[in-house]
């Protein structure tokens, strides 16, 4: 009788070990997936030509990710400057969306990005909102 209890105890311990091992592997796989997740930084611009070049050059040096540049109907030279900077930095073409609400502009920029995660950035390089 004692041998049967010992056997079932060992079996329960082995089952617990197997479940713990599977949980550990699942956790590691989740971390790997998060590490491989690509990020796109969306930069919304309207009438900011006077400091645009410095801010975008600094941002491009700081992040190793996709940059999506969006002009929201600038009346100054911002749109042309964004296009020149995009060519110089090897970025995708600038999205010229005109006067759209911020939420719609972010949605369109996210749709244009190839990354799975989008972060909206102000031109000071500070994270504003994740989505």
UniProtKB/TrEMBL annotation:
This is Glycosyltransferase. It comes from Symbiobacterium terraclitae.
